[in-house]
Amino acid sequence: MPRWDPENPPGVADLMMRLAREEDDDGYRLVAEKRKRAPEQARIRNRWSVFPAIVLVGFGLGIALNQVAVWAQQVRDSALGVSEQISERQVEVDALATQIADVESSIDRRTNALLSGSTEGFTQYLNNVSAAAGYIEANGSGLTLMVYDGNALPAGESGRLSTVRDYELQDLVNALWSAGATALTLGGERLTATTAIRGSGDAILVNYRPVLPPYQIQAIGPEGMLESFLATNTYQDFKALERDYGIVTTVKTEAELTLPAATRSKELQRVRVLTETEPSEASSGDAAVGGQ
User: Fold this and answer.
1) Which of residues 87, 104, 125 is at a domain's end?
2) Of 212, 223, 142, whose CA–CA distance to 184 is shortest?
3) Residue 214: alpha-carbon gap to chain centroid
4) Are 166 and 199 in contact, with CB atoms under 8 Å apart?
5) pTM of the prediction?
6) CATH assignment of the domain containing 186
7) What pLDDT is attached to residue 69?
8) pLDDT value of residue 180
C-alpha cells in the first residue's frame, strides 16, 4: 500500500496508478513462482504419462519374444522330424539296395550255371552284349571330363544363371558317344541306352539319383577319342559358356579306367529267342539285343 503523507496527500489519479502498479507486481510475482514450479510439475506428469506406454511396450515385447520362441521351437521340431525321416528312409533304401544286390548276384550265379554247358561262341556273344548294354564292369583307357558351375549372378542382374543344366550334360554325353566312347559314367552312375539325365529343380538326376557339382564324366574308348571330342560343336559351345558364364570344363586322358556296371533295368523292353547258330553270326555285327 502507498504510504500516506498528510502534508502532501496524493491525488486520486496518482493513487490509482500506484495501486495498479502494485497489483501488476503481485501478478508478475505469482506468474514467476508458477513458472518456477511448472518444470517440476511437468516432469512428474510426464513420468506418470510415460509409465503406461512403457508397460504396454514391455507387454507387447514379451508376447513377441514368447511367439518367436514358440516358432523357433516349432522349426527345430520340424527340422528334427525331417532329419529323422531322412535317416529312416536312408536305412530303408540301404536295406533295399542290399536286397537288390543279393538278388542280382543270385541271378548271375544261376545264369553262369545255365551257361556252363554252352558253346564258347555263345558265351562270348553274351559277354559282348552285356558289355554293350553296360551291365558288366568296363576297363580300359579313356578320359575324365570335369564340369564346374560358374559364379552366381551379381545382385540385381537378370539373365541366365551360371549353373550347368541337365540338357547340357546330355549334350556332352552324346558328344562322347559320337566320339567313339564305349562306356560312360556321369557322377559315378553308369550310362546305358535307357539312362535318364533329368533336372529336378536345382538338382540333376542320373538314373533318378541326384548328382552334385562338379560333374564328373568318365569315358572309355579308342585312341583318338579325345581329339574327336574336342573337335565337336558341343565342346566348343562349352568353351563359350566358360567365357560368358564362368562354367569351366577340364579334360584329361586316363591310362586306365574302371567303370562300374549299370543297375539292371527291371522292365523288359524287347526279347526274342536266338538259334544256336545266330550268336556266331551276330558276333561281328548287328544282332537285336533284348532285356535292357
Assistant:
1) 87
2) 142
3) 13
4) yes
5) 0.54
6) 3.30.70.1880
7) 81
8) 92
